[in-house]
Amino acid sequence: VQLVESGGGSVQTGGSLRLSCAISGRSNENYFLAWFRQPPGKEREGVAATYTGFGGGNIYYDDSVKGRFTISQDNEKNTLYQEMNTLKPEDTAMYYCAADGWWLLPEYNYWGQGTQVTV
Fold first, then answer.
1. Other CB atoms closer than 10 Å to residue 67's CB: what's the count?
2. Buried residues in 18-34 as b, exposed as e (16+ CB within 10 A)
């Protein structure tokens, strides 16, 4: 499985960005997919996760982004998205997409190279 993120950049406080993660090589659609981030000088932390199994539509957000970030996936385009609104300076981090794990626990098997978000 290969993951390639894009869409990061610099934005002012209160602004918005949409991150994309192109996914290739996975054998089925029922993966946990997630976004993590690593702020400067801090450990990587989970942001949002989604899973199409269990009947579909399963999403979980960290409290720090709830109501501001939206995770979604387009299976036809094999792409995971994260819409980020009302961005704050504390959202500054390298953002990673991940596949094949469990909600926001860090033990995911596949990771992208990351995309930088600066607020």
1. 9
2. ebbbebeebeeeebbbb
How many Å apart are CA 54 and CA 87, to the nearest integer?
A: 31
- CB neighbourhood size of 103 (10 A): 14
Which residue's structure tokens are 């979604």? 72
CB 50 within 8 A of CB 32: yes
pLDDT (tens digit per residue) in 18-45? 999 999 987 766 789 999 999 999 999 9
**CA 100 to CA 29: how far, in whole Å?**
10
| Residue type at 113 in one-letter notation | Q
